[in-house]
Write a structure and sequence with these properties.
One of its GO terms (cellular component) is membrane. It is a multi-pass membrane protein. This is Wax synthase domain-containing protein. Belongs to the wax synthase family. This protein has one domain. 58% of the residues lie in helices and 4% in strands. It is built from 21 helices and five strands. Strands 1-2-5 form a three-stranded antiparallel beta sheet. A hairpin with a 4-residue loop joins strand 3 and strand 4. The longest helix has 31 residues. The C terminus is likely disordered.
C-alpha cells in the first residue's frame, strides 16, 4: 500500500482540509428531526395500527457527498485511462482497431504488474486522507479499482465493448469518465443520444426505486427483531450458516428486494448527469427479480449489468476468446472473479483506518466494530456459478419443463431467485450488521412507526 499512500500523502495540506470539509457530516447515526408525524388508524381486522408514524426527510448532503467522491474518482480514472490508451492500446492495434498479435509482454507487465496493483491500493489511503467512515461512501469507492482493473484487462486482451471506445484518446477518456457505460454506435463511432421518452422512463424508474428504498429500509430498520421482518430467527447474518427455514428464506428475499432497489437507485444516480447531457446509458437492471426465466437469464442478462459487462469483458472473454478455454470455464472464471471482486470491496468497506479509533480510549467506535468473515462473497458467487452450470441438465427434467410452460412468469422468476436465497445473507447480511443499511437510510425518506402502547415520544 506504500506506493498509493505516498501518492496521496504528497497532496497539499490545504487541499486535504478542503476535501475533508466536503465529508464532514459522516451520517453514521440517525440525527434527523421528525419532519412530519401522523396517527395510524386502527385496522378493522386484526387489531393492528393505532400508533404514530414519524417521517424523516432525506439528507441532501448524502447525495452531494456521493457526487463529490465520484468526481474525485473520475480524476484518477482519467489519469489511468491516458496511460492505458497510450501504452497498451495505441502501440498494439492495427488501422481497423483490432488487437495485433504480438509477443511483447510489456502490456501485461504494465497492466498486471504495475497499474492494477496500484489502483487496488488506492481506496485505503483515500479513506484515511478524507476521513471517510460512512460505509455508503466507502462502497462507492469501488468504482475506481473495479473500472480500472477490468478495463485494463480489456485493453490487454482486446475485449473492449466497442471499437469506438478505443478509436481516440477522447473517446477512451469519455469511456472512463462514467459509472454507467454509454451506448456506443459502432458505425458513427459516437455515443447514442437519449430520446425524451427514454429519459422520462429513466426518471420514472428512479422515482420508483427511491420510494422502494425508503419503504424497504424503513421496514427492515423498524422490525421488532431488527432486519428480521418474518419473525424471530436464530440465523446469524454475519456467519457461514445456510438459510433453509421458511422464515429465513422469506427474510433473505426481503434483503434481495432491498439490495435490488438500493443498487438500482445508486447506479441511476451515477448515470444521471450523462443522461441530462443527452446521452443514453445502459440500464443497470432489467427487472430481474420478477421477470427472469432461468439462472442464466437472471445473472447473465438482467441482474447488475454494469458488473456483468465488466466481468464479461474482463474475465469471461479473456478466458474464452483470448485464452481458448470452454464457456463453462469462462463462466466459472467470471464468477470467481466476481467473488474476489466483492471480497476485495468488502475489505474496503470495512477497512479500519486510524480514524475508526477513539483518541481517548483507543477503541473502535461502535459503528466501526464489525468485521466480516473472509471469502463469504466468493462462496456465494461460486454457488451461483454452480446453479448456472447445472441449468442445462436440470432443464431436461420433465417437471422443470412443465413448470417453464405452465407457471406464471413471476412464479418462475421467484423460483429462480430461490436458488440463491439460502446464501443471500452472505451478501446482504454484512451490509446490515456493518451499519450500511442504517447509513443509506439518510439519503431517503424514513418512516418510523411507534405502536399505540409506546406513543408519546417520537424520534429516531
Amino acid at each position: 500500500m506504500s506506493t498509493a499512500m505516498t501518492m496521496i500523502a504528497t497532496l497539499p495540506e490545504r487541499l486535504q482540509l478542503f476535501l475533508q470539509s466536503l465529508f464532514e457530516d459522516d451520517m453514521l447515526v440517525e440525527d434527523r428531526p421528525v419532519a412530519y408525524s401522523f396517527q395510524v388508524p386502527l385496522l378493522p381486522i386484526g387489531g393492528g395500527g393505532g400508533g404514530t408514524m414519524d417521517v424523516l426527510l432525506p439528507k441532501l448532503d448524502f447525495w452531494q457527498q456521493l457526487i463529490y467522491l465520484l468526481i474525485i474518482q473520475v480524476i484518477f480514472l482519467l489519469a489511468f485511462a491516458v496511460v492505458i490508451h497510450q501504452c497498451i492500446i495505441v502501440p498494439y492495434r492495427d488501422e481497423k482497431g483490432n488487437k495485433i498479435n504480438s509477443t511483447s509482454v510489456f502490456p501485461y507487465l504494465l497492466g498486471y504488474g504495475i497499474l492494477i496493483p496500484i489502483v487496488l491500493q488506492l481506496p485505503y489511503p483515500i479513506i484515511t486522507y478524507l476521513k471517510l467512515r460512512n460505509h455508503v461512501l466507502r462502497m462507492s469507492l469501488a468504482v475506481l479499482p473495479s473500472n480500472v482493473t477490468f478495463r485494463c484487462i480489456e485493453a490487454m486482451h482486446g475485449t473492449s465493448p466497442s471499437p469506438a471506445v478505443e478509436e481516440s484518446l477522447q473517446n477512451y477518456l469519455t469511456y472512463y469518465s462514467v459509472l454507467i457505460d454509454y451506448v456506443w454506435n459502432d458505425k458513427t463511432r459516437k455515443r447514442e443520444r437519449i430520446t425524451p421518452k427514454q429519459f422520462a422512463s429513466l426518471m420514472g424508474q428512479m422515482g420508483m426505486h427511491f420510494c422502494g428504498v425508503s419503504i424497504m429500509l424503513s421496514w427492515l430498520l423498524n422490525c421488532e427483531q431488527k432486519f428480521k421482518p418474518f419473525g424471530p430467527s436464530n440465523l446469524k447474518l454475519d456467519s457461514y450458516q445456510i438459510a433453509w427455514k421458511p422464515n429465513d428464506l422469506a427474510n433473505n428475499y426481503v434483503y434481495a428486494v432491498t439490495l435490488f432497489f438500493i443498487l438500482s437507485l445508486s447506479f441511476s444516480v451515477g448515470g444521471l448527469s450523462n443522461n441530462i447531457q443527452g446521452y443514453l446509458t445502459r440500464k443497470a437492471f432489467l427487472n430481474p427479480l420478477w421477470t427472469s426465466t432461468s439462472p442464466q437469464d437472471f445473472w447473465g442478462r438482467k441482474w447488475n449489468r454494469v458488473i456483468h459487462e465488466q466481468l464479461k469483458r474482463g474475465a469471461f472473454l479473456p478466458l474464452v476468446k483470448a485464452g481458448g478455454y470452454s464457456k463453462r470455464i469462462g463462466i466459472l472464471g467470471a464468477f470467481l472473479a466476481s467473488g474476489f471482486l466483492h471480497d476485495y470491496v468488502w475489505s474496503v468497506l470495512f477497512y479500519k483506518s486510524i480514524h475508526e479509533y477513539d483518541d481517548e480510549t483507543g477503541e473502535l467506535y461502535p459503528t466501526s466494530t464489525f468485521t466480516p468473515l473472509p471469502f463469504k462473497q466468493s462462496v456465494f458467487f461460486l454457488w451461483c456459478a454452480l446453479t448456472m452450470v447445472l441449468e442445462r441438465p436440470i432443464a431436461k427434467w420433465k417437471v422443470v419443463q412443465w413448470m417453464s410452460i405452465h407457471l406464471p412468469l413471476i412464479v418462475k422468476s421467484t423460483l429462480i431467485v430461490l436458488t440463491a436465497l439460502p446464501f443471500a445473507h452472505y451478501y446482504g447480511g454484512d451490509w446490515m450488521m456493518g451499519n450500511y443499511f442504517d447509513e443509506y437510510s439518510h439519503g431517503v425518506f424514513r418512516f418510523i412507526y411507534h405502536p399505540a402502547a409506546s406513543t408519546g415520544t417520537s424520534g429516531a
